[in-house]
Amino acid sequence: MRVLFLLAGSVLLAACQSPPKPEVVLEQEQAIPAYSAEAFFDNETVTGNDISFDDSAVLVTSDKTGVFNVYRYPIDGSEPLQLTFSETDAYRGISWFPADDRFLFAADEGGNELTHIYVQTPEGKVTDLTPGEKVKAMFVGWQRDNRHFFIATNERDPKAFDLYRYQADDYTRTRIFENSEALSLMEVSPDGRYLTLIKSLSNTDDDLYLLALNDQDAKPVLLTDGPEKASHTVYTFTPDSSALIYGTNAGTEFVEAWEYDIEDNSKTLVYSDKWDVTFYKYSDNGRYLVTGLNADARTEIAVVDIQQQSPVVVPNLPSGDIYGVTFTSDENTMVFYLESDTAPANLYSYQFGGELKRLTDTLNPAIDPENLVASEVVRFSSFDDVTIPGLLYKPHQANRVNPVPAVILIHGGPGGQSRAGYSALIQHLVNHGYAVFAVNNRGSSGYGKTFFHLDDQRHGEDDLQDIVYAKRHLTTLPWVNASEIGVMGGSYGGYLTMAAMAFTQEFEVGINIFGVTNWVRTLKSIPPWWESFREYLYAEMGDPATDEARLYRISPLFHADKITQPVLVVQGANDPRVLQVESDEMVAAMRENGVPVEYVLFDDEGHGFRKKSNRIVAQNAYLDFLNTYLKTTP
Asked: DSSP of 302-315, one letter per residue?
């Protein structure tokens, strides 16, 4: 248990959010500047942490131009360099090449999720490594020899991803695994000898396999053959490829990290806690170990210097959660992101024993962080006394004398989680005087497997009651206007929003952002590349071949006549998950019944927003709709 010993003495790098300030009862509202949606979205969203071969720069994806493109951010803090120049589709950086300045990036067309993998040279020449009209591709990783990398594509069978090994010099490739059973491909070992795969049996049970890639006759070997149902994930291999580190909730509520020794087939528990272990990774040379926990919707991270058997402590860190930790090849410098409710993610570099540098400045300088709001973790009891957590955002101008309207925000999924961190959507609404309660209803991840499965095939019923009881909790708060409470959400949250409007009379308004309204059609039309998750999804929601009656009963489209309050619907025309017809029919049915409905359709978006301009249009629509139909006082 050497790793457990090290972690027990480590210092968490994630700084806690500032505690909520005591309520001060005022005779009038505090004067808070009202920022526009344009101001809130004039931040820079940055992702990506791969470090170049010469340890000089980080490959970063940024939307500073309004569309995601790839940039080179020097570790010394000097000016970044834009590397791609898309004006339409989002380009997302994946990895530098390990011996030169070429890099890999991914892009789809119009949000259709048919992602291709591209390589770009320092001269700007771009090559599509995965051509094909209906092809979807995923980058799997580099081999430690720096001469090969791995990509999975579904070109042979739209339902299954085969694994290919590419040559780094000329991009020629060899198929090294034909995925005839449509398993989920996970990690390839650093030496390129082993592949991990997961076979989904249900949403409570799956099997983890290990395949020897160098043996053409080898079959995947089952690693998890215990008698009880359990879910698994893959974190990493050890740097020498001798062992696999994987996660499992077998025999426990929360996911633990285990080590599987490939040579002797032994298994050892290496890390567990009272929360899910979300990641566990080594630096390339194995000196540092990075672990993370999903601790009450926030990330707690620890970095341990294994060589010195001591925790890494970074001085002078601002408040927030750390993620995306990576190291230079000489392991003298660490790069990471830090984010909080009141500050978008910023990229930092830290030279051990030396200077901490912030490489980005993502918050719009026109916004004073003091005018933003940090969330508070709040819990309430639902209809059956199950405790439901959520993140509550209280506007600065809210008090007993001036109670404010409120919106319950429902995350996507099913199985997602509302987490702490900067959200322009939330901060814009809160800034304009709306309380936001981001509820983690039953079925949300992060609170143990029992809680996660409480909504299985009870969607639109028990989880909907959690939303109703969230409203009831809000009505007990003296600074919330109990007669002005709405509901909104995206994807699965959009479904629960429409369910709330159709199956309850609790909410004054609803905002449905690309949400499912007809489960029968949605489950029959899932994208082919979701084949490996089909059984998982059916176990969660129901099989349309056998559960059609129940799916019909919980689908808002077939109960539109029960909706009486105003609804805003937002949809992407290219959405492969929630087809446009879902929203078209829902809007038509409500309008036929005389319900006030607003419909915003984006011709150039899929399941979500790639373009900053579209996010702004949608955000203005949210606020205008709420101001018109929810807020009764100016």
From this structure: EEEETTTTEE---T
Least Cα distance to 63 among 621, 614, 632, 480 occurs for 614
Residue 505, judged by CB atoms within 10 A of its CB (0-12, 13-18, 19+), counts as exposed
* 48 conformational bin, left if phi > 0, alpha if psi -120 to 50, beta if neither: left
Q: Are residues 376 and 270 in the same domain?
A: no
Q: Which domain holds residue 462?
A: 369-629
Task: Report the phi/psi class of residue 440: left, alpha or beta, with left for phi > 0 and alpha for psi in -120 to 50.
Answer: beta
Tell me the whole-structure pTM to 2 decimals: 0.92
Examine the domain organization and report whether 297 and 374 are in the same domain.
no
Q: Are 630 and 114 in contact (CB under 8 A)?
A: no
The CB density around residue 121, as the number of other CB atoms within 10 Å, is 13
For residues 313 and 11, the answer to whether their CB atoms sit within 8 Å is yes
What's the CA angle centered on 537, arms 533 and 542, to 5 degrees?
Answer: 150
Number of Cβ within 10 Å of residue 257's Cβ equals 25
Residue 495: partners with Cβ closer than 8 Å, 6 or more residues away: 459, 460, 489, 512, 515, 516, 517, 519, 556
Q: Tens of pLDDT along 135-193?
A: 999 999 999 999 999 999 999 999 999 999 999 999 999 999 999 999 999 999 999 99
Q: What angle do CA 185, 186, 191 make, to 5 degrees?
A: 110
Question: Is the distance from CB of 89 to CB of 110 less than 8 angstroms?
Answer: yes
In a shared domain, residues 406 and 276: no
Which phi and psi angles does 613 have, rounded to 5°?
-60, -35
Give the other-Cβ count within 10 Å of 94's Cβ.
20
